[in-house]
Structures
1.
Amino acid sequence: MVYPQQVVLNALKILEDRRNKAEQELQEKKKRIFESVEELGELSKEIAQVSLLAVKAVANGGTAEHVEQFKLKSLELQKKRDDLLKGNGIPKDYLKCRYYCEKCHDTGYLTTGLCDCLKKLLINESAKDLNMKVPLDKFSFDNFRLEFYDTNLVPGLKEPITPREQAKKNLDFCKEYASNFSKESPNLLLGGGTGLGKTHLSLAIVKEVLKKGYSVVYISAVQLVLNLEGHRFNSDEQNKYSIDSFLECDLLVIDDFGSEPISSFSVASVYNIINTRLMQQKQTIINTNLSGQRIVDQYEERVASRLLGEYYVLKFYGRDIRQIKHLQF
Ligand SMILES: Nc1ncnc2c1ncn2[C@@H]1O[C@H](COP(=O)(O)OP(=O)(O)O)[C@@H](O)[C@H]1O
Ligand SMILES: [Mg+2]
Ligand SMILES: [Zn+2]
């Protein structure tokens, strides 16, 4: 698993803080309890000394009998300490260090490899790092305006609608989606021409869902493919987020789907992400300028059928709002 250096450092720092916190809490507990039950302090010191002597004996090649003696002594002292705790109504494991992760004691490593807690941290820190590059504060439901959309019927539709009516539907849907986001929410495909508010609305969703405490990753299809390729080629730091960052987050937004360079590798790896997330019931939002037919043409049938069959489609109509805004101000 490869991650940018800063992401790894951030994750390790969190582990270090967890360890320090656990150890500090233990020290405080010890201090308190040794003050009230003095004999416990003495016993703990004795246990530590015996352990030290045992280690020394082993290191100096002491006989098995000699080492065994220390072991017995230590067990005897521990029993005494446990009885003393019991006698004072204190749980036996009170003096155990309470790590955040009992499996790895907040080191992040097991003899078999990375502990799940470190994997999770790496994914969370990747999401934070990726989202830091997005100007989330600029996009909200509140500053999404309907006046930018025409009120003439869109030509050629089976069910007639104006761009503004459609935009209102999209806005209402996305607001609901964000406020009710859950593991049961549908996947979304936001489709339509450039500058019609797809990125705007999806980032407004990202912001709300992040506020609810879910892990969310927003990434352009170009960056996504670069990242996935980055693991095959020697790539710069920017493109070194592990594929897990994109598989494991609660919500993944892939923007500008269809603008990435198409190769058999990119199609297969994007399909892998879309499909794995579908199977794990993790939500994905995809924005694209491609029409349904272009998706079929550009991607393999299996990608197109996933997107068109298992995603809820929101269509965007109208004129490029970037240009309208430009003309107005
Ligand atoms: N309904 C809207 N109200 C206000 N600003 C909008 C609206 N739709 C788009 N914009 C703005 O216009 C620009 C282009 O929109 P964007 O969401 O990037 O379009 P798309 O992703 O559909 O190409 C952005 O700056 C965006 O904030
Ligand atoms: Mg966009
Ligand atoms: Zn762990």
2.
Amino acid sequence: MSKGRRPDDTIVFEDNGLSHSVPVYRFGSGSPRVLITAGLHGGEVTGQYVAFRLIASLSGLRHDPSGEILVLPRCNPSAFRRLARTSPFDELDMNRIFPGDARGTPTQALAAEIWGLAQEADYIVDLHCAGPFSAPYTLAQYEEYPHCRELAARLDIPVIVQSGGSEGQLFVEAGARGTAAVIIELPGGGPEGILDLSVADDTEAALRRMLQSLDVLDGDVPAPNPRFLGPLERITASTEGLYLPQRVPGEVLARGESPGLLDDEPLEACPEGYLIMNRPPGYVFPGSSLAAVAPLVESP
Ligand SMILES: [Zn+2]
């Protein structure tokens, strides 16, 4: 991946026989500053692939951007190596510990380095994966923060889901400090490290158009028209049985409509809204994750 261009910088952590290094790619200088991160969760590979594709495409620019674009395509290399959410060094979830701790564990120290770059950014887009069966969506605290809503609306991703926000998430901590910060959740990831190439292409194009709309890259683009949705509601199995999905992610479920059948019966009390995720056919058990729906809301 991206063998053509070497990183402009590397964040290195070495301690007591442990080491990891995070490549940093820098395009242009000055303001605004746009930070694009991927792979805070190591197994979420579609986001990392998008970031490497973006690096390749920005490397072909004929002149520098108006402002600075910083891309960190693989923020958690030791977690990536085992295609897992966390690093084997300390098992900490990197996206719950920002602003990090320079004198802490390997993941805390790496988070502190990334936070240092985040503090200088005007815009942050953090790329993640929501599992192989998800539709793509932007995740933002758009109700709380107009600056985050404004950035989310520049992304040509079909829907924007309101985030509950957890303490220590990069986009939450940055958003609370006044930086426009969002997540893009993409299909892919999981223990097999699955990539969704077609969504990755669309997402890389959406990032470039976002950079054009910010006047960081040349070219006029029409404003996208993403749909604003409420927070995700997850649907789990109440009994053991055979689940057969009947709807596909990206469809809208009417009130009372079930995304699939569990032992030939529709699921009860399903929320109405945009179907974000629906698992493939399989035997499931009480508590198994089946689907996720985000309610439609009036555009804020
Ligand atoms: Zn993630």
3.
Amino acid sequence: MNSRDFSGIEQMLGHVDQLPTLPAVYKRLQQMLTDPKVSAREVGAVIEQDQALAAKLLKVVNSSYYSFPRQVTTISHSVVILGFNEIKHMALSVSLLKMFGNARAGTLFDQSGFWKHSLGVAVCAGAIGRKAGPAKCPSHEEAFVAGLLHDIGKIIEDQFLHDDFVLVLREQKKQDVRLIEAEKRILKNTHQDFGAFLAHKWRLPAILESTIGFHHDPLRVQDSESEFAMTSIIHCANIIARALAIGTGGDPYVPRLEHQCWEFLDLGTDDLEPIVDESAGVFNDMAKLLLEG
Ligand SMILES: [Fe+2]
Ligand SMILES: [Fe+2]
């Protein structure tokens, strides 16, 4: 992974000891999955300790995102169908939305629009991942969680550097620049840096840290093909979600596409329409499930 120096970020957030914590169920699943003998029933039992999470997860497994031909009625069955790693990523996504997703619309920073955007990118990343195929995207659920988390740095800015973030939002409006430009001017860092820092603190897989940290500068990911592929997926998904006006990204502009990313995923112009159609349909279902109660 392209290693980052977080000392500046640590200094800025040094007084903060209340950074959001990684959902406990994910931590537990991470530990369990290092044991090759773990069973679907055991994994299911850990998820079922949180009944609200288990119920939501079952709804997601039965949603149009998967379109399974038959209803899946238990968590351990979901584990068998999706696989251990996939259920772990989905459990993280659903837990994160339980933690953060019920946000209200704000006057300056619209958290509700933020989570709509994040979910839009997640759904679109899943659709791109499916089109790109397993060589480029071995895990759709990892793409989904990467999409959900890609802008998490904005939440850190809003919660822990609030006064400066207000200046960023005002600068964006007053100078009519992209949010990321205003972040550089005021905070000397961007939401990519704060997000990658949180991923690092949470000890998330390197691929997620890299994706969060470089989704606006994907060509800077040079060390690993799998990290470049995932960053490319999120880079493209972010642009598609912005172009479809799903949620809000903090400024009115659609970011510029790095064409190398689309090409690296072996996607052509014909692939765009089905990806857009699938994303728009699935987004509505997932938003009802995960953002509205
Ligand atoms: Fe971003
Ligand atoms: Fe974004």
